[in-house]
Amino acid sequence: MSTQVNFKSINQLAIPATISGIAEPILSITDTAIVGNIPVDGLESLAAAGIVGSFLSMLIWVLGQTRSSISAIISQYLGAGRLTEVKDLPAQAIFFNILLSIMVLLSTVFLIEEIFALFNASGKILEYCISYYAIRVWGFPLTLFTFAVFGIFRGLQNTFYPMVIAMLGAGLNILLDFVLVYGIDGWVPALYLEGAAWASLISQAIMAIIALVLLLKKTEISMKLVFPLNKEMKRVVFMSLNLFVRTLALNAALMLAVREATTLGDQFIGAHTIAINLWLFSAFFIDGFAAAGNSMGGRLLGAQDYNGLWELAKKIMKYGTIVSLGLMAFGFIFYRPIGRIFSNETVVLETFYNIFYIVIIGLPMNTLAFVFDGLFKGMGEMKYLRNVLLAATFLGFIPCLYLGIYLGWGLYAIWIAFVVWMMIRGFSLVWKFRRKFQPLVQNP
């Protein structure tokens, strides 16, 4: 099966993937903006939402890597014209992943206070962390299921249905946030921070149901668990384990950033919460082109079309860079209004404004890392991705972070470390791609 590598084919995947990709950070941003403006204990609620959100993102990213493994294998078999050989694989992989997620959920739900104490949360912030997490954690298996279904659709070169699911989920979450956080006079009591948690949980449940229905109705993929295990299940497990280790390293950086921001004080964790949500929003926005690279890259590799693979890498990088420059311009033009969306606390806003420019100028480097990250996932290069993240985190981010803290740079140390982190990731992936595939390309 041939794959056209052009503006239309790339954006048919990238645009829906961008919309679906930003749904998750939109959920977090909505929580952050609405919670940050709660009239009672808004600063403490914002800090708690940031800490819990970071921890849940870590769990989802660590255990959600089956999505990339499924997507890579399905797209490669699709490109090779042998899709029927892996039709029973998704159900087996999803069952394994959900079982693992339930085990993790049960192991954390009884240790909530101890977990968030490790983030230096205390007093009212710790109390809010516990109540917020106790509700949101039950959406964890639902999100993992939805992510795995997204991976199946992506492998089938379909990012439209994930977009529909994500848009419906994000819209519902925003509506429920306003209703449950602030309440409706005489109808619904204001639940404040817990209302945001319930809004997220209900939205995650609806998204999982819609994902299951579309998968069963619109594809030939079965969700019936059958034995023996598919021959590619072993590959799924090993690819997922490599990504599991990689994501632990990734989240080590994110968690250390939250921990050090919390140590600096309430205004700093509040400012960092706003900044990291905007960073993640831009990351998922750019990630639409990474998703296109993931889907098309696996298919081109399966078809052994190395010229097409080389052309794909150049074009998705070009389009991703244009988008990142647009986001940079938007960030600088609306520098202060963006901050006021998330908080009405002057001390939090001024702290945020001091470091927001670092988030903005790092966007092109983020594009380089994210685009090639998606391409490598589609090609099944999980081992190299693991090694790059380990090196970037333990030889780049952590030394830079603690050197900056030692020098008294405060929140600047965290965000400069993020820039160094992304530089190592991006340049390492470009070097590897050129070294491996340039010799295979005719007239590169």
From TrEMBL:
<keyword id="KW-0050">Antiport</keyword>
<dbReference type="InterPro" id="IPR050222">
    <property type="entry name" value="MATE_MdtK"/>
</dbReference>
<feature type="transmembrane region" description="Helical">
    <location>
        <begin position="412"/>
        <end position="431"/>
    </location>
</feature>
<feature type="transmembrane region" description="Helical">
    <location>
        <begin position="46"/>
        <end position="64"/>
    </location>
</feature>
<feature type="transmembrane region" description="Helical">
    <location>
        <begin position="160"/>
        <end position="184"/>
    </location>
</feature>
<comment type="similarity">
    <text>Belongs to the multi antimicrobial extrusion (MATE) (TC 2.A.66.1) family.</text>
</comment>
<feature type="transmembrane region" description="Helical">
    <location>
        <begin position="132"/>
        <end position="153"/>
    </location>
</feature>
<feature type="transmembrane region" description="Helical">
    <location>
        <begin position="316"/>
        <end position="335"/>
    </location>
</feature>
<keyword id="KW-0813">Transport</keyword>
<keyword id="KW-1003">Cell membrane</keyword>
<feature type="transmembrane region" description="Helical">
    <location>
        <begin position="196"/>
        <end position="216"/>
    </location>
</feature>
<keyword id="KW-0472">Membrane</keyword>
<feature type="transmembrane region" description="Helical">
    <location>
        <begin position="355"/>
        <end position="376"/>
    </location>
</feature>
<keyword id="KW-0406">Ion transport</keyword>
<feature type="transmembrane region" description="Helical">
    <location>
        <begin position="236"/>
        <end position="257"/>
    </location>
</feature>
<keyword id="KW-1133">Transmembrane helix</keyword>
<feature type="transmembrane region" description="Helical">
    <location>
        <begin position="93"/>
        <end position="112"/>
    </location>
</feature>
<dbReference type="InterPro" id="IPR048279">
    <property type="entry name" value="MdtK-like"/>
</dbReference>
<dbReference type="InterPro" id="IPR044644">
    <property type="entry name" value="DinF-like"/>
</dbReference>
<protein>
    <recommendedName>
        <fullName>Multidrug-efflux transporter</fullName>
    </recommendedName>
</protein>
<dbReference type="InterPro" id="IPR002528">
    <property type="entry name" value="MATE_fam"/>
</dbReference>
<keyword id="KW-0812">Transmembrane</keyword>
<feature type="transmembrane region" description="Helical">
    <location>
        <begin position="269"/>
        <end position="295"/>
    </location>
</feature>
<dbReference type="Pfam" id="PF01554">
    <property type="entry name" value="MatE"/>
</dbReference>
<feature type="transmembrane region" description="Helical">
    <location>
        <begin position="388"/>
        <end position="406"/>
    </location>
</feature>
